[in-house]
Amino acid sequence: MKNRSPFKNRKNMTILLFFLAGLTFMVFVGRFAYIMVKGEINGEDLSQNVNNLYTRSSVLEANRGAIYDVGGNTIAVDATSYSLIAVLTDEWSNTPEKPLHVVNKQKTAAALAKHISMSEAEILKKLNQENLSQVEFGSAGKKLTYDMKSSIEKEKLPGIIFDETPTRLYPNGTFASHIVGYAELPTDKNGEPSVNPSNDDLVGLMGIEQSYNAELTGKDGSIEYQKDSFGYVLPNSSVKSTDPIDGKDIYLTLDKRMQVYLESIMTEVNDKYQPVGMTATLMNPETGAIIAASQRPSFNGTTKEGIGDLWQNLLVENTFEPGSTMKVLTLASAINEGVFNPSETYMSGSKTIEGGKVNDHNVNGWGQISYLEGLERSSNVAFVNLMEKMGTETWKEYMDKFGIGKTTSTGLPNEQEGFNPYMWPLEKANTSFGQGLTITVMQMMQAYSAVANEGKMMKPQFISKLVDPITGNEKIIEPEVVSEPVSKESANQALNYLKEVVYSENGTGQAYKIEGYEIAAKTGTAQIVNPDTKMYYSGGNNYIYSVVGMAPADDPKVILYITVQQPIINNSSIIGGDVVKAIFNPVMKRTLEYQQLTDESQSQNLNQVEMPKVTGISKVDALEKLNEAKLDVTIIGNGDAVVQQLPLPQKIIIKNQRIILMTNGAMTMPDMTGWSKNDVLKVSEITGIKFIFEGEGYVVEQGLMPQANMQNEETITITLASP
Asked: Which are the catalytic amino acids?
C-alpha cells in the first residue's frame, strides 16, 4: 500500500479552505445585500432604529379649559400638586458634602411633622424602614400645594424630594361644588395615577366638569427633531411639531359675589340646625340664568373635604314632594282659566274626595272664607276646589306645560324627571297642593320663571358661554323659552295675589318681608315618606320647609327658592319657617341691593358722555356738536367763535349737565334763573368775575340783567332761595 504524499494532502486542504472561505464570503455578501435591500434584520427595521437613535421627541402639554363665573373670576383651573418622597439609600449621593438621601431621620421627622398631617413618630417609622431605597407618606404626603412644598423646602432637608402631578384647583373652596363638580386623573386598581400624566388626562367626575368633559379636555401636541450623539441639532434637519389644542374655557352664569355670600349663609344655618338636606337657588327669570345655587351637604372642591357626605346633586338628582309652593302653579293656571275669583267664598277645613279626604293644615279650617284668604292661609281645600273648577284633565295639561314630570335638560349629569301617577281622584286632587307627586328643584325654578316672566317659561341655564382660549371665538348660550303655559296678564295677576301671602294679616309668608322692597312669595311645608314604612312621617320637624319668593313683585328680576329638610330645632319658640327665613331674607336682601346698585350704575353709565373739544371752531359748529351729545349749553359773549369752554375737553360728564362756552365777542350776562350755585361758579371761573351770593338754594335774582355787558363788572350779586 502506497503512502499519500504530504504535499498532495496540503494541496487538497488548501483547496477545501479556499472553497469554504469563498462560500463564507458569499454568505456574508448575500446577507449584506439582503440587509441593504430589505433594510431590516431579525424583523427589526434598521433605518427606523437609526432614526430612533438620533431622533428626539417631546410632548407639548395641552391645558384643560378653565371654568369662570359670569364676571370672569376663576372657579376651576389647572394646577400642579406635589407628592412628598424621602430617599433612604446613599447610592445616589456623590459626595458627603451634598448628600441626596436622608441623613438625620429624627430631625427630618420633626421638621416634616410641622407641614403634613402625620405625627413625628409616624414619619420616623416610615423613615426607619429597611431595604427600601425611598418611601412615600400615604395620603398625608400627596396633593400638596405649591405653598406647602415651598415651606418644606425651606427646612433644607437632604433626601426630601417631590413628584409633580397635574391636578385641578378650585380656589373658592365650597362653591356650588356639586354643580361645578371636579376633575381628577384616572387611577389604577391600587388608586395610583397613570405614569407621566398630563393635563389632558384629567377627567371630570361630577357636575359641569363631567358633563362638559369633552369641551374642557385639550389635546397634547408634540415636537420632533434630530440630534447627533453629542446632543446637538443636526444641520438642515427638519423639525416636526404639532401644536397642543387647549380645552375650551367655560363661563358660568353664577355670580361669585352672590355665590360666596350664599355659601356663607348656608354654612351658618347648616351648623346651627343640622338639617338632613338644604337647597337654595337664585335665578334671573328673564333669562333663566342661575345666579347662585348651593346645597348642604356639600364639599370643598380642592381638598374634597365633605365629599363623602353626599355625592348626589340635590338640585337635579333629588326628587321630593313640593308641598304648598306648588300652589303658585295652580293659582296661575286657575287665573288663566278664569276660575279664580278672589272674593268668591267656600267652606274651609276639609273636603271629601273619592278615596279619601283632603284637610287644611288647620283641620277645623277658618269657616266660610274667600279664595284670596284661602291663598293667604295656604288652604289645601281652596286649591282642590280650583282644580275641580278647571277640570282634572285641564289641570294635568297645565302641569305638563309647566314641565312637571320632565327634565329641564340643564346638562348636569343624572337629572331626574320626577313622578306624577295622576290616576285616582285623590291622587289628582293632592297634586293641586303639591302632594303625591315628586319634582326636582330645577323643575320648580323653570316653572316659577313663567309666573315671574310674564308667562314665558325659561330653561334654567348654568353656562353663559364657551370660549376658545387660542382664537377667542365665543359660543354664547342664548336664553331659551321652553313654553308659555299662561298669559302675561295671568302671570302678572298671580304675582299681585302672591303679594298678599306676605303682606296680608292672614298671610303665611309675613316673615319674608324685606324692608324697602316688595316681595311676592309662597310658603310650603311638605310631608316626607318614611322609606321603611312607606307612610308619611308625622309630627316633629319631619317636613321639607320651603319658600319661593319673586322680587321686585311688580317686575321680578330674581326668584329665590329655599328648601330645608328635617332641621333639628331644640327651641320651642322656633318653627321650620324660621330656618328657611334665616337663609331667604339675607340672601334676597343682598341680591336686591346688588340689583339696585347695578341698575343705578348702568343708568349712570348710559348718561355719561365725554366732553368734546369745541374751542377754536365756530359757535354754530360747537352748538351742533354739543346738541348731538344732549348737553345743556350756555354761551357768554356775542362773538362767532368759541375761545373757552367748561368742562374741559375729554372730561367725563353727565348728559344735560350745564356747559359754559365763551366766544370772542364782548362778554354778556346769561339768564341764570333757576341755576344752582355750582353752575354760577362756572361762569365766575371762565370770566374771572367774582359773584357774591346771598341766601341758599337756586338763583331767583341776579345783579345784572340777562344779555347785559359784564365786561367791566368786578362783582355781581346773586340771590339764592330754596325751591
From this structure: 324
Rounded Cα–Cα distance for residues 163 and 144 (Å): 10
Whole-number Å distance between alpha carbons of 92 and 102: 11
Domain residue ranges in the chain: 6-56, 60-209+240-251, 258-599, 609-721
HSE-up of residue 136 (Cα within 13 Å, Cβ side): 13
Asked whether the bond before 322 is cis by omega within 30 degrees of 0, the reply is: no
Q: How far is CA 384 from CA 28, 360, 545, in A?
A: 102, 11, 21
Q: pTM surpassing 0.85?
A: no
Question: Residue 547, exposed/middle/buried by CB under 10 A (0-12, 13-18, 19+)?
Answer: buried
Residues of the chain with pLDDT under 70: 1-11, 27-60, 188-200, 224-239, 600-607, 655-656, 722-723
What lies within 8 Å, CB to CB, of 629 at 6+ separation is: 609, 612, 655
Q: What is the CATH number of domain 60-209+240-251?
A: 3.30.70.2110
Cell of 113: 411633622
Q: Would you state the cell numbers that stand for residue 366, as one nine-digit string? A: 277658618
Residue 130: predicted pLDDT: 87
Q: Which residue shows C-alpha cell 272664607?
A: 369
Residue among 651, 653, 652, 715 nearest 683 (CA):
715
| Cβ within 8 Å of residue 19, ≥6 positions away | none
* Phi/psi at 206 (5° precision): -165, 155
Distance of alpha carbon 283 from alpha carbon 408, whole angstroms: 14
**3 state DSSP class of 500:** helix
Say how far apart CA 306 and CA 263 lie, in whole Å: 14
SS3 597: helix
Task: For residue 341, give Cα distances in angstroms to 335, 346, 398.
Answer: 8, 11, 19
At residue 134's C-alpha, the angle toward residues 128 and 140, to 5°, is: 80
Residue 132 and residue 442: Cα distance in Å, rounded?
55
Are 546 and 563 within 8 A, CB to CB?
A: yes
For residue 383, report the phi and psi dihedrals to the nearest 5 degrees.
Answer: -80, -25
- Chain mean position to CA 515: 29
| CA atoms of 243 and 90, how far apart (whole Å) | 42
Radius of gyration of the chain (CA): 40
Tell me the C-alpha to C-alpha distance, in Å, between residue 428 and each of 24, 188, 437, 486. 100, 51, 9, 21
- Three-state DSSP class for residue 569: coil
CB 666 within 8 A of CB 709: yes
Q: Which three cell numbers stand for residue 291?
A: 345666579
The answer to whether 204 and 222 have CB atoms below 8 angstroms apart is: no
Query: Residue 150: which of 166, 162, 167, 138 has the closest Cα?
Result: 162
Q: Which helix (H) or strand (E) holds 41?
A: strand 40-41
Helical (H) or strand (E) element with 633: strand 632-636
Q: Do 629 and 607 contact (CB within 8 A), yes or no? A: no
Q: Coil, strand, or helix at residue 604?
A: helix
In sequence order, which residues have a C-beta less than 8 Å from that of residue 577 and are 6 or more positions away? 508, 511, 523, 525, 545, 547
In this predicted structure, what is the pLDDT of residue 641? 85
Which of the listed CATH numbers 3.30.10.20, 3.30.70.1060, 3.40.50.10490, 2.40.110.10 matches domain 609-721? 3.30.10.20
The whole-number pLDDT of residue 280 equals: 98
SS3 category, 402: coil
Place of cell 433644607: 156
The highest-level CATH class for domain 258-599 is alpha beta
Q: Are 399 and 329 in contact (CB under 8 A)?
A: yes
Give SS3 for 603.
Answer: helix
Per-residue pLDDT, 624: 83
How far is 214 from 413, CA to CA, in rounded Å?
14
Residues facing residue 252 across a β-bridge: 463
Res 1: pLDDT: 47
Kindly report the average pLDDT of the chain as a whole number: 87
Amino acid at 443: Q
Instruction: Name residues whose C-beta falls within 8 Å of residue 147's C-beta, 6 or more positions apart in sequence.
Output: none
